[in-house]
Amino acid sequence: MRAIFIVVAFCTVSALCNAQPVVQVEGQNFINLGKSAYYWCDTTGKTPFETVEKFNLKKFTAGKSPVFNGGTDGHVWWMKLRFSRKPETTPYLFIDYASIDTLCLFYRDTLGNVQHVHSGMLGLKQNDAVLGTGYIFPLQHTQTPVSEIYIRMQTMNTLLVPLKLITEPVLNRALTKDYSAQLIYMGIALMILIFHLFMFVMTRSKLFALYMARVILLFFITMVCYLQGYGLMLGLPVARFIFLHAHFFIALGYICTILFNTYFLKLKRQLPFLYQVFKILNIAWGLVLICSLWDARSITNALTQLLFLITSLLFLFSSIKVIVIRGYAKTAPFISFYVLGWIPVALVSIYLVLSLMAIIPFQSYTFNLLTFAAIIEGILISLGLFGQRLRLLSRHNAHFRRQQILLQEQMEGYKKQLDEKKLAPVVHLSLKELTTLAQTRDPAFMERFRESEAAFIQELLRLSPQLLVAELELCAYIRLCFDTKEIARACRLSVRAVESRKYRVRKKLGIDADANLQSWILDLARTS
């Protein structure tokens, strides 16, 4: 008797374990039902619904995460879901993710006939109704009390299916709450974009232009229009274009971000090796960009995930290396926010890539984490950029004050020398004699030149009182028709240093780049 009881109990438990759970529609909140559904991969992509409907439940695989992740191989997946409802209840199947190529819903109505609804980004028609950022299917004609629905899904991107089965009141409340939060995120992102636009207009700095490109390409186009599906609100042709070429916008956004990070941290000077690494990453992103123009999503999908992870981690590493370890933020603490801005992006990128690779389950809040990290990054990076501008202003002010002090000392020295010269008789030397002094590197050359060409020196100082002693000496050599190499030998400088000094003299005297410096100085000497 005991043995019979054990056998009966074992059979009962086995039957319950093999039976698919039934979702009660009236008791559902706005949660994903990935664990309640069963899945089968159709590698041929040609199996009809009538065949799938006859499959034994053992052929299917039970869901392991709230959001189904079908990978990036482009295979067709079938989802089977059982639910129960009261006759007066109209259940709604809501898939809160628009980036799916094709989506076909199959079920039998109350008369036993097969109903087929075709949807998906490539299956929508211009006049199809789409709810917000996903797909809505009313199931009022399904059988009662228990019904089965089958969903055929395929995409060349990562196949993610956040599926909900709810009543209309629950759907309305949840969407109102969800869309309100998304509008707040988009409002903050828009303010960040306006701030960078204002700073770009004021400073003409390419840093603000590059970060604006990142915000537009990666947040508004990729996250809002592509991942969250708001591209459907711009029209079906626009939504499809973004959907098919999403990796183009991602690649272009990261190319701009790499350039932004390189210029901000001055990696070419600070970390030459990492600068070369980022150049290689830019080439890799460029390949993704080119491949995405031909809708090669099977190639670009996995590569984009890998580059996304590596690039985000290197952004954090390079900012820590330059700003924290090398003390780039000592004079402007606000720059430290730049490092803090990349921390949430790096952490979320690790979590997101592991979720997309199905190493860890894909949760309902994963994409919300990405949005939240992007907003935090935008705020902190903006503060870091503001700190960098403050640092530049403080350095310019300090340099201006030093120049003022040097100029005052120089003017006082000139006045003292002029007073002394007035008391002593002045012997003017000819240009030939001055040239001999210059060629023999006589220490008295500059003093005798000032005495002999006092009007020329005074005219130079009248045009630009900021000229330094070394720059006046350069003008003296040019007045004596010395070329660049001769000046370099006389002053014991490199040719490059002489050219740099000439550039500063041009700038201070306001000489056009096209004008010949020697001819300009000789003309000034003749008229003075």
From TrEMBL:
Where do the TM regions start and end? 183-201, 208-229, 241-265, 277-296, 302-325, 337-360, 366-386
Question: Mind telling me which Gene3D superfamilies this protein's record contains?
Answer: 2.60.40.2380, Winged helix-like DNA-binding domain superfamily/Winged helix DNA-binding domain
Q: Where is the HTH luxR-type domain?
A: 464-521
Signal peptide residues are 1-19
Q: Which UniProt keywords apply?
A: Membrane, Signal, Transmembrane, Transmembrane helix
Matching SUPFAM superfamilies, A to Z? Answer: C-terminal effector domain of the bipartite response regulators
Provide any one GO MF term from the record.
Answer: DNA binding
Give one GO biological process term.
regulation of DNA-templated transcription
Name assigned to this protein: HTH luxR-type domain-containing protein
| Organism expressing this protein natively | Pedobacter kyungheensis
